[in-house]
């Protein structure tokens, strides 16, 4: 619990620092006035949202990788003659050896042994885990597994098929990210270019651009430009988001 609070506090400091820096840049480039720092609440909200979205993407990517290895371990234990409950339980040890205490998957499956010792059905434990994982693939697997367990299906074949699909999806995503890597770099450069141009004019020709500061018309134009820049930045990020 203490570690969780420490990490959360650290994340809050990161978001706050990034928001303060972005607000300062806006105040300097677009308004040339400390009053531009009034944008801090809006910037903080946007930065926090982007940070959380990126963190969630990394978490889902990590949990898919760990879940694939977890299913490999479960499949091998089932082939060795273990029951489904024992296979899912013992497979956690192999995942722990691979990823240690930083495992996202084991955090979701925490308490499985205690819940099984209380005669709680494995299906219910896996359903709770799939909800906390927030992954459609894991939810689909759990639904199929629970149905197969009630009807006496072939667990080994189901798990092997699930692992194959997860591996195929991971390969497709990796290929897409490789193709989009150049476009992602271009998008970052294009996002930085307008700010660089504005900074160049402020430093090299302050009189030329000074007419846009300190008057109602200039503030209106710069605010419109800032809004247009924000929309373009958001659309650029959405275009590069590809889901499989």
Task: Write out key terms for the chains shown.
about 240 residues; 10 helices; about 0% strand; mainly alpha
What features would you describe in this structure?
The protein is mainly alpha-helical and 244 residues long. The protein has one domain. 83% of the residues lie in helices and 0% in strands. The protein has ten helices and no strands. Helix 1 packs across helix 2, helix 2 crosses helix 3 and helix 6 runs antiparallel to helix 7. The longest helix is centred in the last third of the chain and has 50 residues. The chain starts with a helix and ends in a 5-residue tail after the last helix. The relative contact order is 0.08.
Largest sheet: none
The string of secondary-structure elements, in order, is HHHHHHHHHH
The number of distinct structural domains comes to 1
- Which shape, going by the Cα principal axes? elongated
Distance between the termini: 34 Å
Percentage of β-strand residues: under 5%
Q: Could you tell me the mean pLDDT?
A: 82
As a percent range, the share of helical residues equals over 70%
Structural class: mainly alpha
**CA gyration radius, whole angstroms:** 25 Å
The total count of helices amounts to: 10
Strand tally: 0
Which segments are poorly predicted (pLDDT under 50) over 5 or more consecutive residues?
A: none
